[in-house]
Amino acid sequence: MRRLLARRMKFHLFGAFVVSVGCAALYKFIVADPRKRAYAEFYKNYDPMKDFEVMRAAGVFESAPPK
Question: Which GO terms describe its cellular component (predicted)?
Answer without folding.
Answer: mitochondrial inner membrane; respiratory chain complex IV
